[in-house]
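We examine the record.

___
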Amino acid sequence: MSEEELKAQIKKLNARATQLKMDLHDLSEELPINWERIPEVAAKTFEAYQALAEARANLKGI
């Protein structure tokens, strides 16, 4: 993957991670409504930030 492609991927991953962070925040503000969704949303948020961290590490390695 080229540096430009990796930067584009990071931009997309960052947008997704930020949206999931906001979803988790919104969910927390609505508690106790939809408390059952906490593990699902938290797992997706964790995975998004993990992918973002890996992509950033790959960019540093170029």
